[in-house]
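Morning F.,

Quick status update on the modeling queue. The single chain you submitted on Monday has been processed. Sequence for confirmation:
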Amino acid sequence: MVIAAKERVSCKIGGLIPGSQAKARVYGVVLRAAGSKRWWVQFEDRDGETEVASSRLKREPNAAGLPAAALAAAEVPGGAAAEAEDEEGNPDLEEEEAEDGRPGFGELALEGADVHKEKRAQWKAKIATLVGTKVTVTNSGKSLDWEVVGAETVTDDDFPSSYGPKKSWHAPGGGGTPARTAKRRHIQGGNRALLNHNIVEGKDMLLRTWMHLYPGDLEADVARVNLQGHAKYRNWVDLTVGEWVRFIGMLHAATLYTQSGAGLFSKSCRGLREAPNFGRWIPQRRFEDIRATAHFAFADMESTAQDPWGWFRPVVERFNANRKVNVKQDPVFVGDESMSEWQPRSTALGGLPNLSFIKRKPKPLGTEFKNICDAAHGMMLYLEIQEGKVRMREKPFSKELGGNAGCAVRFTLGAMQ
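Structure tokens below.
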């Protein structure tokens, strides 16, 4: 919801309603921003200004809360805000910030922002001098030709196999309205993103698709967990493939709830959302035992002595191998980076070989991945762990092309079928 200065709002900060524990709703006018998602409001039932979080405010029509006599005298219209249905205090609503100079998240001064802007301009100027330069890179028998071109010269006409003839970019009936805002022609309907897999409608459709894209062998992973489970617990009960799939599904489902940890096994509701009650799938104690040994499913125990990333690298390699075989590829790739958040508690690195810190990220501390996606259907094709400056300098192409360009060549060649 967008809140603006001089807008009429309400908040439940009045006295207790007789016979109820709820507070009365009071009305007022927003004066100005007090910080990120906080506002100074002049309420009608009190003197002075009150600082209130935007999550507690509800936008109101201009006439809301005014006596009938005052309405008749002032002829206050209802206003378009009457249609706003944002509920007070709903943490699921995503706040937007109006472009009026208020200090929202996107407008807070960041240390070094001007320096970054200046460097970006310098690199743009340098790239402009390299337009037309061609480089051929070869690795493991694969060759890839790169040419520096001006960004303004690249259009969808350069990728007809991806976007189709230009006439198909417009909605039926003409008018020049791009139709790509819905779905591109070549990925509409049916299974157009997966290989070796037929999507059959049914209640288990998503599960079968998920298992098709699972990075590795489910039975082998379960066997490794059982091996360590018997070593760690005297009364360990062998994990089954079905139980392992439920366990991973619970990790995904946990992101849909505000509760965490033991709270996910609660049978009590919070607000209008149903109770998590994760115990209906796996009992809490059993879940905790599986979680304590789950990381062994992805580890290469023979390599961990020489490779500090041996606990995790195998599942990344299996992910990449699976996507290369089972996901269709568009000629257009998009490279980016992702963060897997990690916050050490008692040690500097929290048990990881390396921690990356990228200030511009919402979660700046953790393990960084360079990755590449298919531009047509958006599926991830390839991941590369960022292992720290020293180890990354030893990767192929880094010495010849530099860190970023070398990484781009590696994950492009790695993703190519």
